[in-house]
Amino acid sequence: MILPGGRAPLAQMPPSLVDRVFYAGDMTSDSDDALNWDGDEGDSPTRPASKGSVPPASPDPVPDSSDPALPDGWNAVGKGSDAVGRFEAEAPGEEREPLSTAMLLTLGVVGGIYLLYSVGWVVGGLRLKPLANLIVDDAMYVPWFVLAVAAPALWFLAVWVLTRARASWIRIGLLLVGVVLLVPWPFVTVGVIGS
Fold first, then answer.
1. 30-46, pLDDT tens digit by residue?
2. What pTM does this model have?
3. For residue 123, how many C-alpha atoms fall within 13 Å in the half-sphere facing its CB?
């Protein structure tokens, strides 16, 4: 039987040169090898094992764990997947809702104010340094200067971490208290140019 175009059916075709060539040790030239994972059972069902190939090793045993489980959103596939369970939620109310748009905008605005406060502490503190050197030594002035520059960021971080499980109005309230308390007074009173 000859197919249109003068070709013979696959069952009657002679083996090609590629089917008999071994490129690297026990690697085969079977084109279906790219579709198999290491440890799949046996060779492809359409082709018998080649003469020079090494028989497949038995798959490594899966490490024995008392209860294999996956989190939500993950699916086990393959051999033994029906034995894989699911993680149970630790507490039913522990999942947090994402922040609302208003909360994200408020955090962005207050974070920007704190960033400007840090810049204000740098500018005001550097302007105040010559006057402060008349009263205190650099060893006393520099650590407090660094702390004053870092205070807005530390306040923001502390409020963020310590109010995670609280109502959002508590977080907003504490951030606004920081806006009042952390005003860079050297910058406000002396300014950039000074008086």
1. 666 677 666 666 555 55
2. 0.49
3. 17
